[in-house]
Amino acid sequence: MSLLTEFKQIHLTKVEAEMRQFLRQQTTDETLLKSMLYSVDAGGKRLRPLLLLATMAGFNQKITLGAYQTAAALEMIHTYSLIHDDLPAMDNDELRRGIPTNHIKFGAGMATLAGDGLLTEAFHLLSRAELSTELRLLLLQNLAKASGTVGMVAGQAADVQGEGKLLSLEEMAFVHQRKTGALFTFALTAGGLLAEQEESVVDLLQTLAQHLGLAFQIRDDLLDVTATKDELGKNVGHDATLNKSTYPALLGVAKSSQLLAAELAATKDCLKTLQMTSLVKPELLMSLIEELTLEVQA
Amino acid sequence: MSLLTEFKQIHLTKVEAEMRQFLRQQTTDETLLKSMLYSVDAGGKRLRPLLLLATMAGFNQKITLGAYQTAAALEMIHTYSLIHDDLPAMDNDELRRGIPTNHIKFGAGMATLAGDGLLTEAFHLLSRAELSTELRLLLLQNLAKASGTVGMVAGQAADVQGEGKLLSLEEMAFVHQRKTGALFTFALTAGGLLAEQEESVVDLLQTLAQHLGLAFQIRDDLLDVTATKDELGKNVGHDATLNKSTYPALLGVAKSSQLLAAELAATKDCLKTLQMTSLVKPELLMSLIEELTLEVQA
């Protein structure tokens, strides 16, 4: 078994358990709980919690309960954003991760509330995490900033307004740095903060995250063009239907692939620089980055 | 000028300034900012911030910047809940406070994001408030609990599922304790915590808030039946259209008014008990409670 596969098996189970346990404990309404757990349990790659935990492990730190709770809060934020993004009022997607989207299953009203619930309980969980009061507050501020109106919500807002418009490469990078990059940045920097790293190291993690986030988004755009519905677990060609600006639409598939390769190279450069600091075990992070590359080539 | 009117003029301006300033500072997307400020500026009675600040003042405490920020966060949570509650997927309301609802003005996608943004930035603002780290975290935990899936979101979920069903009086109280009562409870208890009151006093504030929340909801139901669209600034008779269980529908107008009077009496009893503790200036809270009664009689 690869190092990464083993890492996933050991640690993601605990992140998932934290999410489920907290939501069960904090939710009185059964349908609301079902609706939230439906999307939480729909799985996905858990890329953001993995990035957080792999970063922490890279600094040779034992992963604590507080880290699992931070990773769980992060994944709850990501999950809420998918539920709201899929709503008829937004992207109007009917399929995600191979199963019907939340609003198809529970109705748009309940799906809206499931998103609101996950968002609120993410901050609730983090505010109660097993961490020093200072670190809890710092992580809370960072998560709110990453997921809020200079971060993810701003990206979503630009995305909604960008439908039917042809964005420039810069405008598209702006959207993606917020829509995807912000939570990636939180994942990496939170991993550094949980490992008690100094500011210069956390700054390097942030730069790495920005390249990785962009790479991830180009990859996502490419898959929407090149993959099949079965491979992806969601409807493909959806971006084109919504007339969204994507990298393949703007640059073509070949140039987009080149840009992806360049961003991945920049990511790996950052990782090398970080190895000259206290990041003594970069293997997991490297495997995660490799996994991204492989998926697109396959 | 009455004591309450003067109090509103002095303090609500500061709460509103905190909301606007923080949102402007934390929002890059102009349309998103416009959409959030549209609902923030639509005003309303600011009952929750008023309750918080009047409680603090009742303990003869000077109102601090941290208190204004807490009150601002609370009003942002309330505002987000109204935007989402009005959405086509939820109550499908087109008019609130005399003007078109957020989604009528900005579209359902942007309105969903404006709600998500206000919700996230409320916790962001509170996480940065000028308060000790301990008090910030305690208030954050309380606000998340009050607005989350044992609180307001649970009430909304029960409300969505209750459409078309005739609820019992107990079931209706359950919904309202969450939908309205939870944020009222936060307002009163936060006022106590900001005034550094001991647990027994905060518990009394909680009991007062529960009676007041129920009174407020009965009043709201009554107004939907008895007031005109112009008086209310929103479409009336809407509950009946949605086939919602309301106090007038279940008990009739006369019995509902009696129940309202009973809850208000219980509220005043709590206030009297609190005057035997450190609540030395109950006048503002009393005026606020009186205002509620007057509006229904008018």
Automatic annotation (TrEMBL), chains A, B:
- Reported EC number(s) for this entry are 2.5.1.10
Task: Report the Gene3D superfamilies cross-referenced here.
Answer: Farnesyl Diphosphate Synthase
GO CC terms, sorted: cytoplasm
TM region(s), chain numbering? none
Gene Ontology biological process terms, A to Z: terpenoid biosynthetic process
Question: Which SUPFAM superfamilies does this entry report, sorted A to Z?
Answer: Terpenoid synthases (SSF48576)
| Record's keyword terms, sorted | Isoprene biosynthesis, Magnesium, Metal-binding, Transferase
Swiss-Prot/TrEMBL cofactor(s): Mg(2+)
Q: Which reaction does it catalyse?
A: isopentenyl diphosphate + (2E)-geranyl diphosphate = (2E,6E)-farnesyl diphosphate + diphosphate
Gene Ontology MF terms in the entry:
(2E,6E)-farnesyl diphosphate synthase activity; metal ion binding
Which InterPro entries does the record associate with it?
A: Isoprenoid_synthase_dom_sf (IPR008949), Polyprenyl_synt (IPR000092), Polyprenyl_synt_CS (IPR033749), Prenyl_diphosphate_synthase (IPR053378)
Top-level class of the enzyme under EC nomenclature: transferase
UniProt lists the family membership as follows: Belongs to the FPP/GGPP synthase family.
What's the protein called, per UniProt? Answer: Farnesyl diphosphate synthase
Recorded source organism is: Enterococcus canintestini
Record lineage = Bacteria, Bacillati, Bacillota, Bacilli, Lactobacillales
